[in-house]
Amino acid sequence: MSWKVNVLTIYPEMFPGPLSESLSGKALEKGIWSLKVLNIRDYGLGKHSEVDDKPYGGGPGMIMRADVLDMAIKEGLEKTEDDLPLVYLSPKGRLLNQKTVNSFAQGKGVSIICGHFEGIDQRILEVYNIEEISIGDYILSGGEIASMVFLDSIVRTLPGVIGNTHSVVEESLENNLLEYPHYTKPQNFKGMDVPDVLLSGDHEAIRKWRSQKSLEITKKQRPELLKNKKD
Ligand code: SAH
After folding, report:
1. Which ligand 1 atom sits nearest the alpha carbon of residue 113?
2. What's the chain's average pLDDT?
3. Which domains does the chain have, with CATH numbers?
4. Is the overall model pTM greater than 0.85, yes or no?
């Protein structure tokens, strides 16, 4: 069974976009995950298929209408009968992290609403009990790129996507540590040698060196991660 994705967007031609390349693209071809893209504009109002309007109370920009999104969810999503969690990518959401990525990967899939303009009508979030997820503390112009980031991070962890599951287990942010530095050929580059221990063939010494480096890098770059580290 594929890990299922439904995307509601006003820019359907943006998908699968970069997700059709590399790991996620191969996984899509293999059917490890599947993608259905629904155009919110198909549920727009009037001659111009309007999807947005001015905010009550004034202020800049436009808001995506509750009735249009409601139709798109009812007609577009609920008919697929997938019964997947509904997510709205938004800077007001819970910050995405590897734990959330892994927990979505354990599920059957996800349906995503891509916001635009100033966002979507609050009542849609409440009626459908939508989970809001942010990909970081900055503002993008739309939810499409955010949803690609979200999906790429999940898809690469699905069984069969990355050959060597070790590479996922040891990665940055698993167990709240950043990854140790990597080296490959040439052995000497611009006068800089590969650390001796990595050439020693001593697996235990290499493991120790890497875990020491992981700790050092995490302390320097992201000390707050160590506070949440469980061991
Ligand atoms: N006025 C809103 C920002 C709207 S940005 C606010 O201040 O909260 C337009 C759309 O881009 C949003 O509806 C959301 O879907 C998407 N978006 C922007 N930044 C994002 C982020 N950091 N994470 C996830 N989605 C984001």
Report:
1. 15
2. 94
3. 3-155 (3.40.1280.10), 172-228 (1.10.1270.20)
4. yes
